[in-house]
Design a protein that fits this description.
Elements: H1 3-18, E1 25-27, H2 28-40, H3 45-52, H4 56-64, E2 69-71, H5 72-79, E3 91-93, H6 95-106, H7 111-118, H8 122-130, E4 135-137, H9 138-151, H10 160-171, H11 189-201, H12 205-216, H13 222-247
Antiparallel strand pairs: 1-2, 3-4
Helix pairs in contact: 2-4, 2-5, 3-4, 3-5, 6-8, 6-9, 6-10, 7-8, 7-9, 11-13, 12-13
């Protein structure tokens, strides 16, 4: 809720308490039915949550709530959502979302972990991780960004699943967050390639060689891969020139 909305809510609450009319809960059933109706019209739980000003997990919990009542503030906010006021302007490029979930996978965080942290469904996280989508709902992108900020600073707790996720990520060449500059995450493939080549152009041969050795040791950061590739290409070109000179 915005600061003004919070003040309005608190003022109304205080008045009702003073008059003995404050009822902090409402029936869950109508709210659940309303969410189901919105879902049927194409609004995701994340989008409903964004429009209502609540966390996505709150919407999901309401769908599965067994208790007869829930917070009046939350229920009223959800019931106030009747449609998506801007359905055509909520899609953004998926690149940043894909990069973030792959970085988290490199730390051992599974699709289920990321789903729990973001409120985005596990299946949607999996699709973003696979690169199967070109666009992502802006609310999903924001939710994944929040989960990334929460999880990217630590490894997933050690478990069989975490190891499997890390191995899966490494096999596909996904670098952990430490290998990325924050500003790179949302760049397109072309923009990132241009930025990395600009950085590598400023490197001396010695620095490129250090990155090449790091890649041989398992380093997967984008700048390391580009530096190693450029060193390899230059070495191959120089060798070819020597061979041509000898043949002449």
């Amino acid at each position: 809720m915005s600061s003004q909305a919070t003040r309005d809510y608190q003022n109304r609450r205080s008045r009702l308490i003073a008059y003995g009319q404050w009822k902090p809960t409402i029936d869950t059933a109508p709210v659940r039915v309303h969410i189901q109706s919105l879902r049927g019209r194409g609004l995701s739980a994340v989008r409903i949550a964004a429009l209502a000003g609540v966390h996505p997990n709150t919407v999901k919990a309401t769908l599965h709530r067994t208790g007869p009542t829930m917070s009046r503030r939350v229920g009223t906010a959800i019931l106030a959502v009747t449609h998506d006021p801007n359905p055509t302007a909520t899609k953004v490029a998926v690149r940043g979302t894909t990069n973030r979930v792959r970085c988290l996978a490199a730390l051992g965080w599974s699709s289920a972990d990321i789903a729990d942290a973001s409120g985005v469904s596990r299946s949607a996280v999996g699709r973003y991780m696979s690169g199967a989508r070109k666009l992502v709902h802006s609310d999903h992108a924001a939710a994944i960004r929040g989960a990334y900020e929460d999880l990217s600073g630590r490894w997933a707790p050690e478990s069989r699943t975490a190891k499997q996720v890390r191995d899966h990520a490494r096999a596909r060449g996904w670098a952990p967050p430490a290998g990325w500059e924050t500003e790179w995450l949302d760049l397109s493939v072309e923009e990132l390639d241009e930025e990395l080549n600009r950085l590598v152009d400023r490197m001396g041969r010695g620095e490129r060689k250090r990155w090449w050795r790091a890649v041989q040791g398992g380093e997967l950061s984008p700048v390391a891969l580009v530096a190693a590739r450029r060193l390899h290409e230059r070495s191959a070109r120089e060798m070819s020139e020597v061979e041509m000179a000898e043949a002449a």
